[in-house]
Amino acid sequence: MKITKICCIGAGYVGGPTMAVIAKKNPHIKVTIVDINAERIAAWNDKDLSKLPIYEPGLAEIVEETRGKNLFFSTEIDETIKESEMIFISVNTPTKTYGKGKGMAADLKYVELCARNIAEVATTDKIVVEKSTLPVRTAQAIKSILHNTGSDVNFSILSNPEFLAEGTAVQDLLNPDRVLIGGESEEAIESLANVYGSWVSQDRILRTNVWSSELSKLTANAFLAQRISSINAISELCEHTEANVNEVAKAIGMDSRIGPKFLNASIGFGGSCFQKDILNLVYIARSYNLQAVADYWEQVIILNDHQKRRFSDHLISTLYNTVSGKKIAMLGWAFKKDTNDTRESAAIYVADHLLNEQANIAVYDPKVNGKKVQADLNYLNTRTEEENMELVQSFNDPYEVTNDAHAVAIMTEWDEFKTYDWKKIYNQMKKPAFIFDGRNILNKEEMTKIGFEYSSIGQ
Ligand code: NAD
Ligand code: UGA
């Protein structure tokens, strides 16, 4: 099928950047991203590019280049589905918060609503592409909905999971390690392969069956997260043995079978996907009664929770077993650098734990505002909104946030944190002045020389 119009349902962290790059590389295709969230669509259409709902290096430039030419953002979902030959489903698939599989399974209600919406309004043949991360065998459910409409419209279903990481989304999309397309219909697979073929060489476009494609996405995230939990587990052992986790990571990473990437010990991984996707994998394994498989992967999450917890426990015990009434300056709130996304950020859980101990939390993040910080804490429901408001304050300046603080906790690895005048920060803090470097980005020797009581992960 020749593709001239693409619709993407879901204008989020995946739909936005992915479609912007597809539009940039395929000027002959009209790409429209639709969403039920009118506010989000309005932000995508804002003339002021700093107001785009998602911050990603390089994204604003591509939106500026393509928006209004062949990239459009709209709330006209039905119309856009109707006119498009190819429809991407890129909606959120969070962990279920109710009913069967609560806290484990992926909530597929948004995906199902999309499938029903497409089934309802389509009058011509469509290729439907699963872009959201979905449990293995979801395509079966989508197929069943689409094929029982009573009309003679033909639907081909493809799985095309996305592997971009936030903060490097544009680069990841422009130079993907691979593009994965799972499907039954060769014609549909080739139509999608042609869209990517505008900039990705064909040998990097992998064709598989639908189920391998769906499962590969969950597996990739599980393996990546497992590496972090593995190095974080070793970081705790380092702290008891005078080994240095950075040195260990370097030494093992030089083994070409292990490789150097993704071995940074940290306060624990965050982000909207690792935990959700592993929980989902565990749930699927249990549903097939594969207990050993489920237990194996669940351990990745258990270790990650432990890592977050032990960071805040260590902070409290170092501050003479009490943080009550003390100002703890948190540098960073996003789950990693170069994004404004805070979903499942370790900072939220560390702050929550410290707030239970009546700490005063002061936050500075270059891309996250105070409203978001409050919303993240309120979402946990641990205390009242008023209490969060009273105990947590956000600042726009790194020197203000650290002024009079008892301790600085580095939660995100933003590059700018390394460039601060740490002597100045030391001078204005309460003494002894503590740094808890949850990302191992500062130099221990330099910090100690300034006078800080410095501790980091696994050193
Ligand atoms: P998101 O929450 O940022 O965006 C999803 C959007 O879908 C929201 O704007 C929401 O309003 C919209 N939506 C929900 N239901 C809708 C409906 N019925 N009709 C129209 N719009 C609807 O989510 P995201 O981070 O972009 O993730 C989307 C999917 O991609 C998830 O399955 C996720 O696991 C996967 N994924 C995410 C990343 C990432 O880095 N964030 C990377 C790879 C894969
Ligand atoms: C991750 C995957 O890397 C993507 O391939 C995938 O598409 C995406 O999930 C998804 O499915 O959503 P993302 O969560 O955006 O991408 O970012 P990562 O770079 O993977 O970082 C995740 C978390 O792990 C962050 O909190 C980061 O700080 C932490 N991390 C990462 C470490 O603690 N150590 C590392 O060495 C690497």
UniProtKB/TrEMBL annotation:
The active site is at C273 (nucleophile). Catalyzes the conversion of UDP-glucose into UDP-glucuronate, one of the precursors of teichuronic acid. It comes from the Bacteria. Pfam families: UDPG_MGDP_dh, UDPG_MGDP_dh_C, UDPG_MGDP_dh_N. It catalyses: UDP-alpha-D-glucose + 2 NAD(+) + H2O = UDP-alpha-D-glucuronate + 2 NADH + 3 H(+). One of its GO terms (biological process) is UDP-glucuronate biosynthetic process. NAD(+) binds at residues 10-15, 35, 40, 91-95, 132-133, 166, 273-276, 343. Belongs to the UDP-glucose/GDP-mannose dehydrogenase family. This is UDP-glucose 6-dehydrogenase. GO terms for molecular function: NAD binding; UDP-glucose 6-dehydrogenase activity. Coiled coil: none annotated. Keywords: NAD, Oxidoreductase. SMART domains: UDPG_MGDP_dh_C. Its EC number is 1.1.1.22. Residues 329-444 form the UDP-glucose/GDP-mannose dehydrogenase C-terminal domain. Pathway: Nucleotide-sugar biosynthesis; UDP-alpha-D-glucuronate biosynthesis; UDP-alpha-D-glucuronate from UDP-alpha-D-glucose: step 1/1. It is an enzyme of class 1 (oxidoreductase).
